[in-house]
Design a protein that fits this description.
Length: about 280
Amino acid sequence: MLVSTKEMLTAAQAGHYAVGAFNVENLEFVMAVVRAAEEKRSPVILQTTPGTIKYASLDYFSSMVHTAASRAHVPIALHLDHGDGFDRCIQAIRAGYTSVMIDGSHVPFEENVALTSSVTKVAQAIDLPVEAELGKVGGKEDDGPAVKGESPYTDPEQAVEFVARTHCTSLAIGIGTAHGVYKGTPHIEQGILKEIRSKLEIPLVLHGTSGVPDDQVKEAINNGICKVNYATELRQAFTRGFMGYMASNPSCFDPKKPSKNGMQEIMAVVESHMDNLDSTNKA
């Protein structure tokens, strides 16, 4: 069943667990993530970035996820990840997405407030949740610039002002994680997270979680995170399964066969994260 992230994250926050938000790249990703959620009886968020949408389209992904949700027995949300402008968010809403993220983290504070507010004003009218970002998650998301030369951490006092002025319904915060592949061991600044949590009531979101040790993620959930994003790990898992099959079966010309291996690898990753997020059996 297709639902919004609002009810999912409200339940997660009250229950002291987190919902996994998994970036899907094609049909196989959609099927694998939903199957994992069914196996674990877990709520799940499927999300797409602007880069993925350029590969196909909002309508393609919306149709796939709506079909999957209509057959599933667990709550499924369809989310626009890192929406790169007002127009993209409105297009996603019109395409049937059940929540959107507007990412103004790469512009100055006042511009971020104005951009985020422009989206929330529209979304509020139809009770659709809007995730925003304040502070900087390092690395690269799709073709966006890497963050250099400034503090990546979200300022707790500024976060209070930002939420009050924009009316976003969840907030992605910069606490030390980064998009893409980590070159060293990542470190979440739990102290900053706890301070932000003490000042805000809305759900908090952790981006750039692929490769972050499970114990750090678990601690972040205990400190107030209730939505956790994963993308890179799923890409790696699918490619590992696909290429592994082709290495053993180089004459194969049926893409369904290596894709099935890729899907199994994705399912294993997603199921493991659902256990760590404590969303298993929360559907």
